[in-house]
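Sample intake sheet
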Amino acid sequence: MIQTFLVFLAFLWAIYFIFRKIKNDFTIKKGCAKGCGSCGIDKKISVFLLILVVLQSCNAKKEENNNDNPTFEIGKSNKPIANKEKSKLMMADTSKFEEVPDNFIQQRGRFKQNGKYGFLDSLYQIVIEAQFIEAERFQDTFTKVKKEKFWGVINKKGNWLVPAKYDKLGIFKDSVTYFIHQQKYGFVSYHGKEITKNEYDWGDNFYEKRAKISKNKKWGFIDLKGKEIIALNYDGCRNFSENMAAVWQNSQWGYIDTTGKLLIKPQYDLALDFEKGKAKVKINGSFVEIDKKGKVVK
């Protein structure tokens, strides 16, 4: 604003100066006395105005550079904080917290106050009050928390996605995990929909869109919709890895594929997961490596 005014003033002065010079030249020709001093005063004013315009331009450039590199401060706003406003904002008082976030996920960090957990945003402002007995770090846009005796799931605003009614929740993979309620296992999505009832003696996290389950000492697998896609026919099993899972039957280990088809018949004393197309197995007291057809490769 000041710069615009000075430029406008300098423009008017330039017009006046040109008009004055033309007039003086005409007067000198008619015999004007050159020692009046008015021409010198005009030049001094012109130089003074020019200096003011230059100085104001430099100040404007400096302010522009400051705006290009705004200062962020801990406060209630996510907007860049100008230097003039910086001193007006109060730093968030974290001294009253027993724990402060060591990192932020989805702009949420866990803190502890009065023995309970809550969440701060990346400016260290409280967005979810400390109210949970236990709380995990955010996994994407949600996290597991324990209120009173039970676990549930909340979103970034602290709203319940899965009500706190479970004794335990597993790790969400493909948006689904197991839960324990009344000493039985079931499965629930992070939206709160139970895809199975708590009817199993054992359940596990999902691996390659399959989760192992057990009922009446028999094992099988369910898919992400809770359907038993591999019947509970086995005495034991491992999780899927590279589309293969080790299964235990008649005191021997073999391998099935994701459809439940037996690819390598039970014949091993121990069978581990496949990695890079190979798996370690124990047979006749020794460990060897096999490929996915059961051929010994090492």
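Comment: The first strand starts at residue 109 and ends at 113. The CA atoms of residues 201 and 216 lie 7 Å apart.
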